[in-house]
Amino acid sequence: MNRPATSDGRDDxxxxxxxxxxxxxxxxxxxxxxxxxxxxxxxxIDTVLLALPDLQGRLKGKRYGAQHxxxxxxxxxxxxxxxxxxTDVDMTPADGFALTSWATGYQDLRVAPAIETLRLxxxxxxxxxxxxxxxxxxxxxxxxxxxxxxxxQLARLARHGLDVMAGLETEFVVYRGTYEQAAExxxxxxxxxxxxxxxxxxxxxxxxxxxxxxxxxxxxxxxxPVEAVKTESAPGQVEVTFPYGEALAACDGHLAxxxxxxxxxxxxxLAPTFMAAPETGVGSGLHLHLSLWRDDVSGMxxxxxxxxxxxRHAIAGLLDVLPQLGVLYAPNINSYKRYAPGSxxxxxASWGHDNRTCAVRVVGHGDGRRLEVRxxxxxxxxxxxxxxxxxxxxxxIEQGLEPGPAETADAYREGTTPLxxxxxxxxxxxxxxxxxxxxxxADVVEHYAHLAQLELDHHHRTVTDAERRRWLARA
Length: 475
Fold this sequence. Notes:
alpha+beta; Creatine Kinase, Chain A, domain 2; 2 domains; 10-stranded mixed β-sheet; 6-stranded mixed β-sheet; 16 strands; 18% strand; globular
């Protein structure tokens, strides 16, 4: 419809000024390169965090000027020392890795931005985050990189015409005071954010409510809206669940989520921890909710409503191989202190329908039917935990395994296959499993077995407060 013209030929309505016509709206959530370019031109973004997920599931990288990133890196790659993918939690340079060492001079690898992961980080003003993929100098993927490992297992599953949808549910404990204050006191006398069992509570103290609101708002602004936030039974313990989606993207989002938790917590004078067992008798898990799909149709149920053949094979594969993959989902000494009877953390390779004592819990109905893999702790690298689960699912499908009867009672009882009780047990099972070597490749197995050995060596020579309390006056 034509607007009426004034006597001098101009439209009656006032035209928008050129600056208003060009100015983009503030961005929310995920961004394309073109949208990033618009936000940089408008002065809203000045920093790009290019991060490579490391072996422990942390973001490692550099802060780049946003315009430099657009001009030089968005369609190219950056350099990063290869030891980021060959070091322990303390970032200690160590020999024994094939990827890099003192013998090879600690050379660089290339990091190619995965532009599809570009997102705002509202907890870091005027900044965006983009994850990168590790490449060698010939442009080939670095096989021990966690994102690469998960991609390989998902591609293997796709050869069977199946995709995995994943929803991650994680627990963590929040303490009062900063990380620096906790270190100054030798991590003694830590005070949880909440002082009692608030499982399923909706009457949260003001400090907890403020933290939850800030976290939810920041995550929504990053394109990571939460499904639910829930206080748990241990003092200061929180559970956050996310809607299900594509498996790799779920892990990408989980690293951004953990970064947000730590940053927002620190600015509020809090110290969140994702330790699997931050205190004796307290355990925090990372539960993997997984479902199989074929051509956008759930493949979890058969025509009669019972578990489909692929779902049964997947369960059987998980029960068969998870005991050999502990290095990937329980990566340090502390991880194994979470597994205890009556703890809601599994101790056996077991499965059941809506049975929280099992390692694999079948839950939901219709398109929402899924497997809840309950073995990973909150300290797990999500890419590696999902790699372990999907590798086990592939094994079960390819071998046509059947899971046996579901547990209908207490799966902590003796008689079923135990999960590893220590990191040493897990490392031995991982290193010497033909199934794991076939699934992951010998080089990957040796890389992560060596990482586990470094962790064991560190603790073998470290005297702890618990040892002094038990033995100083009695030995």
